[in-house]
Amino acid sequence: MDIFIRSVAVLSRACGFVAGSLILISIFVVTHMVVQRYAFGQPTIWQTEFVIYALIASTLIGSPYVLLLRGHVNMDILPIYAGPRLRFALAMVASVGALGFCLLLFWFGAWYWHEAWSKDWHSDTLWRVPLWIPHLSLPVGMGILSLQYVADILSLVTGRTLPFGLPPKTGTDALVESFPAHVDTLT
After folding, report:
1. Could you tell me the maximum CA-CA distance found in the chain, to the nearest angstrom?
2. What are the extents of the domains in the chain?
3. 89, 93, 147, 182: which sits with the fewest CB atoms below 10 Å from its CB?
């Protein structure tokens, strides 16, 4: 099980690298587009469409990395004050529900990608990019995100991680300890 969890973590980190690279490439393409259009007065054909697809792909493919780092928005006011059993139950309900949603997106995204690939769909722009390429980011991103959720659920069930990453204490002590140390000096 440790091998699976570590392998999924490596895969999620690779997704983070790909997502960051897509954002960096998009920055360069937008700069190229501006220079080409305004400095040289030449039309742009592929740049806008590429940047749109790349930023969407970076969002979808980067989502497993965000989950791995717990970088998503988390409403944890109830788990902070909940006891260990309720905290565990809330974490399981949230994780299993999110996993189900990601699996649905994976399934329908794979179906949509296959349709674009098998019917040879192209965009309606001058670039005429084959649409299976940008549509691939949905099943890939959601598939790896689903694996990351499975790894998180396994870590939670086996006690490798705490629910919501919170310490086992509850009540006001846990709330006070969750703030950084420098907050006390401000009051």
Report:
1. 65
2. 2-186
3. 182
How big is the chain, counted in residues?
A: 187
pLDDT of 46: 94
Q: How confident is the model at residue 168 (pLDDT cuts 50, 70, 90)?
A: low
| Residue of 103 and 184 predicted with greater confidence | 103
Give CA–CA dist 98/94, Å, rounded.
6
Residues 183 and 65: their CA atoms lie apart, in Å, by: 29
Q: 175 with 79: CB under 8 angstroms?
A: no
Which residues make Cβ contacts (< 8 Å) with residue 163, sequence separation at least 6?
A: 79, 84, 87, 88, 90, 91, 92, 156
Using the CB atoms, write b or e for 151-180: b if 16+ within 10 Å. bbbbbbeeeebebbebeeebeeebeeeeee
Measured CA to CA, the distance from residue 9 to residue 21 in angstroms comes to 18
Which of 68, 149, 157 is CA-nearest to residue 105? Answer: 149
**Helix spans in 119-180 (H):** 132-135, 137-157, 172-178
Quickly tell me which residue has 């649409």 as its tokens: 131
